[in-house]
Amino acid sequence: MSDEFPLASPKKGSAGLTGYWRVIRPVIDFSKCTRCRLCILYCVENTIDQENNLYPRIDYDYCKGCGVCAQVCPTKAINMIPEVK
Ligand code: SF4
Ligand code: SF4
């Protein structure tokens, strides 16, 4: 996780990996992503990291599927897709 902001990193809790709760999953369309970092800043679970190429990477072990990242993305590069379980 990024160490530029004083945010806690997600950790496995007594309920297990919080990503198991998810019913919809954010999927990034990298052809629309401008690497603006807003999704990283706004992710309520701090589960989005930045790869070496500066594109965002979502940690699905902890993403709860809240959709905040999709809402704040200025280019609508993040689509919320139903989980297939
Ligand atoms: S908010 Fe959208 S455009 Fe910005 S880094 Fe995230 S996915 Fe890319
Ligand atoms: S759906 Fe919510 S928890 Fe998952 S990456 Fe987006 S903002 Fe973070």
Automatic annotation (TrEMBL):
Keywords: 4Fe-4S, Electron transport, Iron, Iron-sulfur, Metal-binding, Repeat, Transport
Sequence intervals crossing the membrane: none
Domain 4Fe-4S ferredoxin-type: 24-53, 54-83
Molecular-function annotations in GO: 4 iron, 4 sulfur cluster binding; metal ion binding; oxidoreductase activity, acting on the aldehyde or oxo group of donors, iron-sulfur protein as acceptor
Identification of the protein by name: Ferredoxin
Organism: Acidianus brierleyi
Entry-linked Pfam families: Fer4_21 (PF14697)
Needed co-factor(s): [4Fe-4S] cluster
